[in-house]
Specification:
The chain is mostly helical. The chain has 2 domains: about 160 residues, no CATH class; about 90 residues, no CATH class. It is about 60% helix and about 10% strand. The chain contains 12 helices and 4 strands; from the N terminus they run E-E-H-H-H-H-E-H-H-H-H-E-H-H-H-H. Strands 1-2 form a two-stranded antiparallel sheet. Strand 1 and strand 2 form a beta hairpin. Helix 1 runs antiparallel to helix 3.
């Protein structure tokens, strides 16, 4: 599994899985579906005006100016859609948002305007000159699942969907007799707990102990607690999640 390291707002480096060919294709299908829907709306508007003004058109009149302008605007949006969407929506188009993937710098940072521009320009190679074959082959064989435009720009796509939802975490704490070890976990937010679980998941796959240590240090400082004797950092983080799940589930009942 290929990953890209992203630094969170809490200064914790999390490895996010690189989006594969399937996610990229699905995202593109969604985007094409959106533009196809918009195209048919414009098409039916044109048909409506053609029928309503058929006599004028037969006598030599052309399409109304505003319909021509509408087609020009549609063409411009279709051409610049990916570039504008990725710049203003943090690396995501409608399709990418729906499939839970986004564009990032290969080192995990947010891409610059120049990088967004480069990967957009090379769409001409990926999907134009090579009819999409170049993009498919490049994503399939490159280490970070990059199309040609990504290789040139130094970007790739990552999966943004959390590996585990909070609802799934809460299901792990259903023991009515459970006694929370750290009651102050109610000072944490759902986002904090999700990040803690991401750290645990990353440790299980990478065995990066410094990741667990740094996360445990920040949680201890935030909750103003000390780890009991005999409990290591990994067990501490798991206990925090269990305590939070238990307290939150009881608060909501």
């Amino acid at each position: 599994m290929q990953t890209v390291k992203i630094r969170t707002s809490q200064n914790i480096d999390i490895d996010y899985e690189v989006a594969g060919l399937g996610e990229r294709v699905l995202a593109r299908i969604v985007d094409i579906g959106v533009f196809t829907g918009v195209f048919y709306i414009i098409y039916f508007i044109i048909i409506f005006f053609y029928i309503s003004q058929i006599e004028q058109l037969q006598s030599g009149g052309g399409l109304p100016v505003f319909l021509i302008v509408l087609l020009i605007i549609y063409s411009i949006l279709f051409i610049f859609y990916d570039l504008v969407a990725e710049i203003y929506f943090n690396g995501q188009s409608i399709g990418k948002y729906a499939i839970k993937i986004k564009v990032v710098n290969i080192d995990g940072a947010r891409p610059t305007l120049g990088q967004y521009f480069l990967r957009w320009v090379f769409r001409l190679v990926d999907f134009g000159i090579t009819f999409g074959i170049g993009a498919l082959v490049s994503v399939a064989v490159s280490e970070k699942k990059q199309r040609i435009g990504d290789l040139i720009a130094g970007t790739t796509l990552i999966k943004t969907k959390p590996r585990t939802t909070l609802n799934e975490l809460f299901l792990n704490s259903q023991d009515e007799n459970y006694e929370p070890v750290f009651p102050s976990v109610n000072n944490l937010s759902d986002e904090d707990v999700t990040l803690i679980h991401e750290v645990i998941s990353n440790f299980k796959s990478t065995r990066n102990s410094s990741l667990v240590y740094n996360m445990a240090l920040r949680v201890k400082e935030h909750l103003a607690v000390e780890i009991p004797r005999g409990m290591n950092d990994f067990d501490f983080l798991q206990t925090v999640i269990k305590d939070y799940s238990y307290i939150t589930s009881r608060t909501g009942t």
